[in-house]
Amino acid sequence: MTSSLETGGRRRTLATLAAGAAAAAAAAGTYLQLKPREQPPAAPQTRGSRRFPDVELTTHEGKRVRFYTDLVKDRVVFVNMMYAQCSDRCPPMTYNLRRVQDMLGARVGHDIFMYSISLLPEHDTPADLHAYMKQHDVGPGWTFLTGAKADVERLRVALGFYDVDPKVDADIGQHTGVVRIGNDTLDRWCMAPALLDADQIVETLMAVDPVARSSGRTRVS
């Protein structure tokens, strides 16, 4: 027979275990309530997003865009710098790049995009850039851009339109002579003189353009 002393001991043991379990459950509940909700992992940065500042710019149509997110990401692009008041160096370069645009045909604005960024954004309004485009008969798929001076300067340096000599770098005319050509998806980038023969600029594109390279063409159009 079980003595009353043993029975009482068992009851006390069970009561202690039950109390311990209840305390543990309460503590777990409190922990779950206090534990912060896990956030989804941030999207990994691409090389391009680290390479270029995603500054806000304004197009010749007055539309606000982000340089990397809206204009460059996953695209093949041509980028050069100019300013609407430029009367000697910029027009010949614009004319030459318009020949490039003509050679690329319907691909411009479809899978190849051309951008010209003002070096004097404090003076060049969207209307000024639109007038410059009309004057030089620029076709669709080529966007002209302006923005805050500090943002354009950051972008200029990131794109490689600068000189290590501060005196040379201070001359904005030194930054109009080349065009940056890139494929963000493949992270392939190069440069070409803006006054290089249009055929050769198009040939330079082949170094970064998967469509032209995969077909083995010697001409993009």
TrEMBL record:
Molecular function as annotated in GO: metal ion binding
Keyword Amino-acid biosynthesis appears in the UniProt entry: no
Record keyword Metal-binding present: yes
Keywords: Copper, Disulfide bond, Metal-binding
Domain of life: Bacteria
Cysteine disulfide partners in this protein: C86-C90
Region (Disordered), start-end ranges: 35-55
Residues annotated as signal peptide: none
Transmembrane segments: none
Record-listed Cu cation binding positions: C86, C90
Cited Pfam families: SCO1-SenC
Family (UniProt): Belongs to the SCO1/2 family.
PANTHER family recorded: ELECTRON TRANSPORT PROTIN SCO1/SENC FAMILY MEMBER (PTHR12151), LINALOOL DEHYDRATASE_ISOMERASE DOMAIN-CONTAINING PROTEIN (PTHR12151:SF25)
Stated name of the protein: SCO family protein
Organism: Ramlibacter pinisoli
